[in-house]
Design goal:
Riboflavin_synthase-like_b-brl, alpha/beta, 32% strand
Length: 239
């Protein structure tokens, strides 16, 4: 396993509780849209065994052509040791990234793509949206639906820049009940491709609604490794 040590180049306050940490791209480090990585703080590998309290599994919220590795995360007032340390970190401090891969690469040649997310889960989809804006080949429509009870919605600059772009729909809602009603409506598109990012209960609820509407498992993209993905659909079938 290769560990890439790098530095925080910039810290962006997206909302009162959400920050994006822009990291310098280490030599030889590559990734694609929809990628996730292990993000670790100094000291995580100082002992015989890794200190897992200093490691988190994070999505990369930037594309390679932005020349930064973006890590977007919510940091509440009451938070874990990891988030508490991260909150007080500054530009120039060292962090590590390793085990980078993607479970939700951008697929083309499907009529309509739906991005279903909760809160900061939208960070996973930001690169997909930017990729679509660069090249719409093979996709008729991209529809992002995000639920966030804080009402501090992420990346307004991205969506404001494409206002009037009729093939890209950005929809934010502030409660789960209405969100799931919208998912049912979007699922009327039996040919759509549905990407889902969020907590495990959030994934389970979305899968249940989509399956009930006749959406097949191969039309759902989850930010999970293959064996983890399989477990979600096995659970759904046994319910």
């Amino acid at each position: 396993m290769q560990i890439y040590w790098t530095t925080i180049e910039e810290i962006i306050e997206e909302t009162p509780q959400v920050k994006t940490y822009l990291l310098k791209v280490p030599e030889g480090f590559t990734w694609e849209e929809g990628a996730h990585t292990h993000f670790a703080l100094e000291g995580f590998n100082a002992g015989e065994k890794p200190n897992r309290s200093l490691i988190r599994h994070m999505s990369i919220s930037t594309l390679p052509n932005e020349n930064y590795i973006g890590i977007t995360t919510r940091i509440k007032e009451q938070c874990s040791e990891f988030k508490s340390i991260l909150r007080n970190m500054e530009r120039g401090e060292k962090v590590a990234i390793f085990k980078t891969s993607s479970n939700v690469p951008f697929k083309r040649h499907v009529p309509n793509v739906y991005l279903l997310s909760s809160g900061v889960g939208l960070a996973t989809f930001r690169p997909l949206i930017l990729q679509y804006l660069e090249d719409q080949t093979g996709i008729e429509k991209l529809h992002s639906l995000n639920v966030d009870s804080t009402k501090d919605y992420l990346y307004p600059n991205v969506f404001e820049s494409v206002e009037g772009h009729h093939q890209l729909i950005s929809e934010f809602v502030d409660n789960r009940a209405y969100y799931y009603e919208r998912v049912k409506q979007l699922a009327e598109d039996r040919d759509g491709l549905f990407y889902i990012v969020g907590s495990d209960p959030f994934l389970e609820q979305n899968i249940e609604i989509l399956r009930a509407a006749g959406i097949a498992p191969d039309q759902m993209m989850l930010d999970k490794h293959p064996h983890q993905r399989e477990a979600f659909f096995t659970q759904e079938e046994m319910a």
